[in-house]
Prior knowledge:
Protein name: Phytoene/squalene synthase family protein
Number of strands: 0
Number of domains: 1
Radius of gyration: 19 Å
Pfam family, one: SQS_PSY
GO biological process, one term: carotenoid biosynthetic process
Helix content: 55-70%
GO molecular function: geranylgeranyl diphosphate synthase activity; squalene synthase [NAD(P)H] activity
Order of helices and strands: HHHHHHHHHHHHHHH
Structural class: mainly alpha
CATH superfamily: Farnesyl Diphosphate Synthase
Keywords: Carotenoid biosynthesis, Transferase
Largest sheet: none
Amino acid sequence: xxxxxxxxxxxxxxxxxxxxxxxxxxxxxxxxxxxxxxxxxxxxxxxxxxxxxxxxxxxxxxxxxxxxxxxxxxxxxxxxxxxxxxxxxxxxxxxxxxxxxxxxxxxxxxxxxxxxxxxxxxxxxxxxxxxxxxxxxxxxxxxxxxxxxxxxxxxxxxxxxxxxxxxxxxxxxxxxxxxxxxxxxxxxxxxxxxxxxxxxxxxxxxxxxxxxxxxxxxxxxxxxxxxxxxxxxxxxxxxxxxxxxxxxxxxxxxxxxxxxxxxxxxxxxxxxxxxxxxxxxxxxxxxxx
Length: 289
């Protein structure tokens, strides 16, 4: 495998999500490189919909080239994906296709009516990532672990939706379900104006409780992972759950700016989680930077 190709995937992950990059940095090779490749392809899928003017491919082109992966050329992601599937033959291709299906939904289905609809979307765009990662993070196929991985992804996507309410409105999307707006007597027009009051806070707190429920399900099988993978999963979950605390500390004003977990807070979480693992395993993770 061309090391430069893997390095380009790693750079995409480092730029796109410092939290994920740090969480998975201590995985042994080739698990670590496989995570970089999966992230890079998912980023290309996401950018093809959210930033089409800057993306190298449309979502349709990505799906076509992925379907013809053996002959796909023109970008480092294609040989990287071929390496991924050759190195981890237990990885199925269906989650990648479902991920693209979920992102395609953003082009036509932009206003959600029920929580069930929202969680179905969260499975497509994020729960599938758990399915992609599972064969990389562990050698056996455990149905309980598959379910947990999907749940963690769903919880993370709910956090994304809460954090990005304002940005998504600018893109013409409203992920907050209409049934929750109606439950708390909060109007769609008030959402457009960015009104933050006790009704909006109550709505967001309910979504927060849903996210935490999915996180609990998502971490239920973490003890069955190899230690390096278990720690990576815990770190990723902790970094994302901490976004909810930042949102709460800001009074649930998700219109004024993006909730960001600071480096010091991440370092504290790292030290706390690393302390539960053997020093020989925890020492693989970079503590600073």
